[in-house]
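Supplementary Note 2. Why include the ligand at all?

Several targets in our set were suspected to adopt different conformations when bound, so apo predictions alone were not considered sufficient. For every target with a known small-molecule partner we therefore ran a joint prediction. The input for adenosine-5'-triphosphate is given below.
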Amino acid sequence: MLSLKNVVKTYKSGEVEVAALKNVSFDLPEKSISVILGPSGSGKSTLLNVIGGIDRPDHGMIKVMEREVSSYKEKELTEYRRELIGFIFQSYNLISTLTVGENVEVGSEISRDPLKVDEVLDRVGMLDKKHKFPHQLSGGEQQRTAIARALVKNPKVLLCDEPTGALDEDTGKKILRLLQEINKRYGTTVLIITHNQGFAEMADWVVKMKSGGLDSIFHNEAPVPAEQVKWG
Ligand SMILES: Nc1ncnc2c1ncn2[C@@H]1O[C@H](COP(=O)(O)OP(=O)(O)OP(=O)(O)O)[C@@H](O)[C@H]1O
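The joint prediction is reproduced in token form.
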């Protein structure tokens, strides 16, 4: 279970305070796919960052697979990120001087129980491009590599911040399909931030944020394969 109770996060810059998360509470089951929707500035990235231990809440409780992350000090948070969490961003964040294989190797090296690099590259359809550099790849291929780098750690939770934001519809749907396949094969809990309302159709759970608060959460009884989502 992934559980948030009365989570508060306020950013201060100078005199100005921004309430990024205001008393957010919800539960999501393990091994599910969730989509997080909401307007710009509604707190989606902040939510992902506090769940992933990149940032810490000011108040409230965050529990991920029986671990009370919100009580962790820096060292425990680093361990937690290493062992349980994979991050995927819109901008891929690959190391430009390393090949595809080497980028994935980096993910493998920081894990205690990594999957095999070639297995993961094969799974994301990038094994034949193992020796290419990021600038020799399309956007979709770069995102596949970034997914492989996150996946090789064998994370329990994959946190994806606008993973298809820089991709066209066809490539984006293939990436979403890959996330669905990973969820099924490895039982990974997947959270996907998006502005694309249509993604709700492929998720088990849909979390809607509004002005730093939870607007609604609902269970989708019949998620569709990614290729059937309406691209908005
Ligand atoms: N490091 C920070 N310092 C100051 N304010 C911040 C910081 N990070 C986020 N905020 C503010 O917190 C609020 C929530 O931001 P957040 O990035 O979580 O929203 P979002 O829903 O992900 O937006 P977007 O869809 O535009 O990415 C915004 O008002 C934002 O300006």
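The first strand starts at residue 2 and ends at 13. The pocket of adenosine-5'-triphosphate is lined by residues 11, 13, 18, 20, 38, 40-46 (CB under 6 Å). Comparable summaries for the other entries are listed in the accompanying table.
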